[in-house]
Design goal:
Number of strands: 18
Strand order of the largest sheet: 11-10-12-13-14-17-18
Structural class: alpha/beta
CATH architecture of the largest domain: 3-Layer(aba) Sandwich
Shape: globular
CATH superfamily of the largest domain: Response regulator
Largest sheet: 7 strands, mixed
CATH class of the largest domain: Alpha Beta
Oligomer: single chain
CATH topology of the largest domain: Rossmann fold
Length: about 450
């Protein structure tokens, strides 16, 4: 199927997610007439005591008669709730996005099979961000132009670029595919389902210094503001524990497959730890080439590294011993959420996507994102609230407080903070597999 800026799918696919919810703008009756030009899809008004809604007809936006009273904004009991999934479905990050999308689709199918959310079935549309801020903004604009109400998003640079737009447009975004930078950087209309990257970096530095015994680190990171900020957090904590930073080398994502000159500079100071904060296939290639250059120290990365493709690209021998922080995820666990997740994965996903035994954290994070969204909608329905008011849905997440039963661990939301408290895991590449070796809540 040819990919466009957005498309609908019922087959299994994978993605990194943003949850978006846009309110319908009310308009005074004097400004509207049936067939007249309107400004925003979904805007509502009353004409001669009858409701009208702004609808896209061809290339124009016009007022059309609506069967729903204009003052009633809640979704009808039989309405389908459509999620917009904003991820890099094509380009260098497509392999990770595929895993994420498959996780989200698994949750959607599982929820629908159980009767939906308060009787509402879930559907989804994919919007391709290419993993870049510019394309991400275009995808977001497509999402809003198509009357997008709910959505899921991921990838730090895209999240940072879209966050202010969501605040401007009164759209609620659920960041389920990228460790959040900070409450302020996400804007007022974005909620996270992952823990903050500042917490992850602090935990990683603490583990490297105190548990792994590393003394000197060099960074190789993607040349974007979010990643630069991340290594600053790591370095600050690492230094406070007695460590030193030998070098910090940036790379432009997907610009090359030869990182030897970058690595030569990074390794010149003889670090005993190489920390990678890059995307797509870059971390695996850097790991392989570091080993080829004779580096025998530890290699560690952020939560985007421990996916099967990393070991496939780096090679089993080069990947061996690489460690990473990640959201807590144990595919061999016997707790009820994990057993249900594996059962649903086997039931709803094609075997050629990935076997249940090879599931990783980024399969599960989008699955959990849909579950958080469903929990919020369930609360709104219980309270007889307005499903199309983003603040009502956002407040419902806070009212739920602890969203339990998630595969990656309970998410605890505190009023006023958009980033939940979440457990972290430590994984290591062992014998061609990622193995969970520890759990931390630092």
């Amino acid at each position: 199927m040819k990919l466009s800026s957005f498309w609908r799918r019922s087959a299994a696919v994978s993605f990194a997610v943003v949850l978006g919810f846009s309110t319908l703008t009310s308009v005074q009756a004097a400004e509207a007439k049936v067939g007249g030009v309107c400004a925003k899809v979904g805007a509502k008004a009353t004409v001669a005591a009858k409701p009208v809604v702004c609808t896209k007809v061809g290339s124009k936006l016009v007022w059309k008669a609506s069967a729903t009273p204009a003052k009633v904004a809640a979704v009808a009991d039989t309405d389908t709730i459509t999620l917009g999934i904003l991820l890099p479905h094509t380009g260098p990050n497509a392999s990770t996005a595929k895993l994420m999308t498959a996780g989200a689709v698994t949750a959607i199918k599982e929820i629908n099979e159980a009767g939906g959310v308060g009787g509402h079935k879930l559907d989804y549309i994919l919007y391709d961000t290419l993993g870049t801020p510019e394309a991400g903004v275009r995808a977001y604009n497509d999402f809003v132009a198509q009357g997008g109400v709910y959505g899921i998003i991921g990838y730090s640079s895209v999240v940072s670029a879209v966050g202010p737009l969501a605040s401007r447009d009164n759209v609620l975004l659920l960041n389920g595919g990228s460790p959040a930078l900070s409450n302020q950087q996400m804007g007022t209309h974005m909620m996270a389902t992952l823990g903050g990257v500042n917490v992850e970096m602090g935990c990683a530095a603490t583990y490297a210094a105190k548990t792994w015994g590393k003394k000197k680190v060099s960074f190789v990171y993607a040349d974007v503001a979010a990643n630069y900020q991340g290594i600053q957090w790591f370095g600050e904590k690492f230094r406070s524990l007695g460590g030193t930073v030998a070098a910090s080398e940036s790379v432009v994502q997907a610009s090359t497959t030869d990182f030897r000159s970058v690595l030569t500079r990074a390794l010149a100071g003889k670090p005993d730890l190489l920390y990678l904060y890059t995307y797509g296939s870059d971390p695996a290639i850097v790991t392989q080439q570091a080993r080829q250059l004779g580096f025998t120290g530890g290699i560690m990365g952020y939560s985007g590294i421990p996916v099967p493709a990393f070991i496939d690209i780096a090679g089993k021998d080069s990947a061996e011993g690489t460690r990473a922080t990640t959201g807590y995820f144990d595919p061999n666990g016997k707790d009820a959420p994990m057993l249900q997740y594996v059962k649903s994965w086997k039931a709803y996903q094609n075997a050629d996507v990935v076997p249940a035994t090879d599931l990783s954290f980024y399969h599960a994070t989008l699955y959990d994102s849909v579950k958080v969204f469903a929990a919020a909608l369930t609360q709104v329905i219980k309270d007889k609230g307005d499903l199309k008011n983003p603040r009502v849905v956002q407040d419902a997440i806070y009212k739920v407080g602890t969203v339990s039963g998630l595969v990656t661990g309970d998410a605890v939301y505190t009023k006023g903070l958009q980033i939940p408290a979440k457990p972290l895991g430590i994984v290591e590449a062992q014998g061609g597999k990622w193995v969970l070796t520890g759990k931390t809540s630092c």
